[in-house]
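Input C-alpha coordinates:
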Protein backbone atom coordinates (compact mmCIF):
# COMPACT_ATOMS: atom_id res chain seq x y z
CA UNK A 1 0.00 0.00 0.00
CA UNK A 2 1.22 3.50 -0.83
CA UNK A 3 -0.01 6.89 0.31
CA UNK A 4 -0.11 9.65 -2.30
CA UNK A 5 -2.43 11.13 -4.87
CA UNK A 6 -0.46 9.50 -7.70
CA UNK A 7 -3.13 6.80 -7.96
CA UNK A 8 -6.16 9.05 -7.54
CA UNK A 9 -8.40 9.51 -10.54
CA UNK A 10 -7.55 12.93 -12.07
CA UNK A 11 -11.18 14.09 -11.88
CA UNK A 12 -11.30 13.19 -8.19
CA UNK A 13 -8.00 14.97 -7.48
CA UNK A 14 -9.39 18.07 -9.22
CA UNK A 15 -12.59 17.81 -7.16
CA UNK A 16 -10.57 17.75 -3.94
CA UNK A 17 -8.76 20.92 -4.99
CA UNK A 18 -12.02 22.62 -6.04
CA UNK A 19 -13.61 21.77 -2.68
CA UNK A 20 -10.62 23.12 -0.74
CA UNK A 21 -9.65 19.60 0.31
CA UNK A 22 -6.16 19.47 -1.24
CA UNK A 23 -4.72 18.14 2.04
CA UNK A 24 -6.67 14.91 1.46
CA UNK A 25 -4.61 14.18 -1.63
CA UNK A 26 -1.74 13.09 0.61
CA UNK A 27 -4.01 10.74 2.58
CA UNK A 28 -5.23 8.75 -0.43
CA UNK A 29 -4.11 5.13 -0.22
CA UNK A 30 -3.40 3.05 -3.28
CA UNK A 31 -3.43 -0.74 -3.11
CA UNK A 32 -1.72 -3.16 -5.50
CA UNK A 33 -4.90 -5.23 -5.74
CA UNK A 34 -8.37 -3.92 -6.50
CA UNK A 35 -10.65 -3.03 -3.60
CA UNK A 36 -13.88 -3.07 -5.61
CA UNK A 37 -15.96 -4.50 -2.79
CA UNK A 38 -16.42 -3.13 0.71
CA UNK A 39 -14.99 -6.37 2.13
CA UNK A 40 -11.85 -6.09 -0.03
CA UNK A 41 -11.38 -2.45 0.97
CA UNK A 42 -11.86 -3.13 4.70
CA UNK A 43 -9.37 -6.02 4.58
CA UNK A 44 -6.78 -3.91 2.73
CA UNK A 45 -7.19 -0.93 5.08
CA UNK A 46 -7.52 -2.98 8.24
CA UNK A 47 -10.76 -1.37 9.37
CA UNK A 48 -14.27 -2.56 10.20
CA UNK A 49 -16.50 -3.34 7.22
CA UNK A 50 -18.98 -0.70 8.41
CA UNK A 51 -16.23 1.96 8.13
CA UNK A 52 -16.31 1.65 4.35
CA UNK A 53 -18.55 4.17 2.61
CA UNK A 54 -20.11 2.59 -0.46
CA UNK A 55 -21.16 5.00 -3.24
CA UNK A 56 -24.03 3.27 -5.01
CA UNK A 57 -25.90 4.63 -8.01
CA UNK A 58 -29.59 3.89 -8.44
CA UNK A 59 -32.15 5.13 -10.94
CA UNK A 60 -35.31 6.69 -9.48
CA UNK A 61 -37.87 6.81 -12.28
CA UNK A 62 -34.89 6.77 -14.63
CA UNK A 63 -33.02 9.64 -12.89
CA UNK A 64 -29.67 8.72 -11.31
CA UNK A 65 -29.36 9.12 -7.54
CA UNK A 66 -26.32 8.37 -5.39
CA UNK A 67 -26.77 6.49 -2.11
CA UNK A 68 -23.93 6.50 0.42
CA UNK A 69 -24.12 3.41 2.63
CA UNK A 70 -21.86 1.79 5.21
CA UNK A 71 -20.01 -1.25 3.91
CA UNK A 72 -21.66 -3.73 6.25
CA UNK A 73 -25.20 -2.86 5.17
CA UNK A 74 -27.42 -3.18 2.13
CA UNK A 75 -29.66 -0.47 0.70
CA UNK A 76 -33.40 -1.04 1.05
CA UNK A 77 -34.60 0.02 -2.40
CA UNK A 78 -38.17 0.44 -1.16
CA UNK A 79 -37.02 2.93 1.49
CA UNK A 80 -35.09 4.84 -1.20
CA UNK A 81 -38.23 4.87 -3.37
CA UNK A 82 -40.30 6.23 -0.48
CA UNK A 83 -37.65 8.83 0.44
CA UNK A 84 -37.59 10.14 -3.14
CA UNK A 85 -41.30 9.79 -3.80
CA UNK A 86 -40.41 7.79 -6.89
CA UNK A 87 -42.54 5.23 -8.68
CA UNK A 88 -39.65 2.84 -9.23
CA UNK A 89 -36.01 2.56 -8.09
CA UNK A 90 -33.66 0.24 -9.96
CA UNK A 91 -29.93 -0.41 -10.38
CA UNK A 92 -28.69 1.12 -13.64
CA UNK A 93 -26.32 -0.58 -16.07
CA UNK A 94 -22.58 -0.09 -15.56
CA UNK A 95 -22.34 2.26 -18.55
CA UNK A 96 -24.99 4.55 -17.01
CA UNK A 97 -23.01 4.67 -13.74
CA UNK A 98 -19.84 5.61 -15.65
CA UNK A 99 -21.68 8.16 -17.80
CA UNK A 100 -23.32 9.79 -14.77
CA UNK A 101 -20.37 9.81 -12.38
CA UNK A 102 -17.34 9.57 -14.65
CA UNK A 103 -16.12 6.53 -12.70
CA UNK A 104 -16.38 2.75 -13.01
CA UNK A 105 -18.34 0.67 -10.51
CA UNK A 106 -15.98 -0.26 -7.67
CA UNK A 107 -14.25 3.12 -7.76
CA UNK A 108 -17.12 5.63 -7.52
CA UNK A 109 -16.27 8.30 -4.93
CA UNK A 110 -18.93 10.14 -2.90
CA UNK A 111 -18.28 13.43 -4.74
CA UNK A 112 -16.37 14.81 -7.74
CA UNK A 113 -18.78 13.37 -10.30
CA UNK A 114 -19.19 14.32 -13.94
CA UNK A 115 -22.78 15.46 -13.33
CA UNK A 116 -24.68 16.58 -10.24
CA UNK A 117 -26.99 13.97 -8.80
CA UNK A 118 -29.20 13.85 -5.76
CA UNK A 119 -27.32 12.23 -2.86
CA UNK A 120 -28.85 10.26 0.00
CA UNK A 121 -26.54 9.33 2.89
CA UNK A 122 -27.55 6.63 5.32
CA UNK A 123 -27.37 7.69 8.95
CA UNK A 124 -25.32 4.53 9.77
CA UNK A 125 -22.22 6.29 8.42
CA UNK A 126 -22.31 8.58 11.46
CA UNK A 127 -21.53 5.60 13.73
CA UNK A 128 -17.80 6.16 13.06
CA UNK A 129 -15.30 8.98 13.52
CA UNK A 130 -13.72 8.17 10.15
CA UNK A 131 -14.97 6.30 7.10
CA UNK A 132 -13.10 5.23 3.96
CA UNK A 133 -14.44 5.87 0.47
CA UNK A 134 -13.26 5.18 -3.08
CA UNK A 135 -11.01 7.85 -4.59
CA UNK A 136 -12.11 7.31 -8.18
CA UNK A 137 -10.48 3.96 -8.94
CA UNK A 138 -10.91 0.38 -7.66
CA UNK A 139 -7.38 0.68 -6.21
CA UNK A 140 -7.67 3.91 -4.20
CA UNK A 141 -9.44 5.03 -1.02
CA UNK A 142 -9.38 8.06 1.26
CA UNK A 143 -10.39 8.68 4.89
CA UNK A 144 -12.79 11.39 6.02
CA UNK A 145 -15.08 12.20 8.92
CA UNK A 146 -18.56 11.07 7.83
CA UNK A 147 -20.23 14.43 8.56
CA UNK A 148 -17.67 16.18 6.33
CA UNK A 149 -17.97 13.53 3.62
CA UNK A 150 -21.77 13.85 3.56
CA UNK A 151 -21.56 17.66 3.52
CA UNK A 152 -19.08 17.69 0.60
CA UNK A 153 -21.26 15.19 -1.28
CA UNK A 154 -24.30 17.43 -0.75
CA UNK A 155 -26.03 14.49 0.88
CA UNK A 156 -29.32 14.35 2.73
CA UNK A 157 -29.25 12.18 5.87
CA UNK A 158 -31.78 9.35 5.61
CA UNK A 159 -32.52 5.88 6.95
CA UNK A 160 -32.43 3.58 3.91
CA UNK A 161 -30.53 0.62 5.38
CA UNK A 162 -32.06 -2.81 4.92
CA UNK A 163 -33.18 -4.16 8.28
CA UNK A 164 -32.67 -7.78 9.30
CA UNK A 165 -35.91 -9.74 9.04
Amino acid sequence: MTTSDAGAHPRFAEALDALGLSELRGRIRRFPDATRTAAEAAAAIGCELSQICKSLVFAADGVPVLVLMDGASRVDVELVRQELGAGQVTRPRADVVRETTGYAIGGVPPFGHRSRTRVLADRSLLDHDVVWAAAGTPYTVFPMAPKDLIAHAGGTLVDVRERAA
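The chain has five helices and nine strands. Strands lie at 2-3, 29-30, 52-60, 63-70, 89-90, 118-122, 131-134, 140-144, 156-158.
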